[in-house]
Amino acid sequence: MTAPLWLWLAFSAFLVGMLLLDLFVLHRDAHEVSLREATALSAIWIALALLFAGGMFLFAGPTEGTQFLTGYVIEKSLSIDNVFVFALILGTFAVPKADQARVLLWGIVGALVLRAVFIFVGGELLERYDWIVYLFAAILIFTGIRLASGKHEEIHPERNPAVRAMRRLVPMTAGYRDERLWVRRSSLADGEIPQRRALLGVWVGTPMLAVLAAVMTTDVVFALDSIPAIFAITSSTFIVFTANAFALMGLRALYFLLAGAIERFVYLNIGLAFTLIFVGAKFVYSDLAGKVPVLISLTVISGAVGLSIAASLWKTRAMTGDETSRPGKGSKE
């Protein structure tokens, strides 16, 4: 599916509109996001994605509609892993609960911009070089095997190269200033003024700027897995981008909904590993023997993730709220 320019502009306007609604209406004042609010927002984003899928079925056809749904399921499933990482980042930097929603929003918007670059570059590479298919397949299968074996690389947000570089280059205040990323030097007390010269002269960064960098750059690691996975389903950059956008824009609500119970998803890594290995094998099979019907891909992927979640919840059904991590505390036992 080659989307016309007006469709790209219309979808971009929709994203900007939703961002403005969030900034100036839903979260105009900093506050701790309740479970009820997170559930409502998550339901809204899922409903919007399903409405968009319905439009794809109606105006683009069943193939494109199913491709979008499959890509969205992949992204939504893989984004559950992001929930733990966000909890780890917010816990490591001790971000106040009232300020978590705003920094996550800006982090996700920045991550979406970075993913857009990956998507267009990846689409161009697939268009020009056939062997890229095997590189993407190898990345997915290797990641799936590591995920299934439990060999996860530990994530240390404070060691993130972008965060460390920012702290070297940008003078920062010792503590947070609500949800602000920058403050004027003149607003700081004498003992709070950093010794190094601010890059913007009168402006000084806050630790929230480092949190934002950690969220954005950590998501890039996840994009290296998820974006090739969707390209195994469709070659349409529009479908890949919109599936990523809906999953990412709903990720913040998903964080506040699931972060307190993320430890219950004990078998999720198996479902995600199977998904990555399946789409990696699909890449190779499609190149050598022919395309796998997208409806089969949707059924297999949603079934694998759904079963792993159901099995996890059944296995951990005896857990109480006190036995699971709270949002922002972030340590994985």
UniProtKB/TrEMBL annotation:
TM ranges: 6-26, 38-59, 79-96, 103-125, 131-149, 198-224, 230-258, 265-286, 292-314
One Gene Ontology cellular component: membrane
UniProt topology in membrane: Multi-pass membrane protein
Alphabetically ordered keywords of this record: Membrane, Transmembrane, Transmembrane helix
Broad class of the protein's primary localization: membrane
Subcellular location: Membrane
PANTHER family linked: MEMBRANE BOUND PREDICTED REDOX MODULATOR, THYLAKOID MEMBRANE PROTEIN TERC, CHLOROPLASTIC
Protein's recorded name: Unannotated protein
The organism of origin for this protein: freshwater metagenome
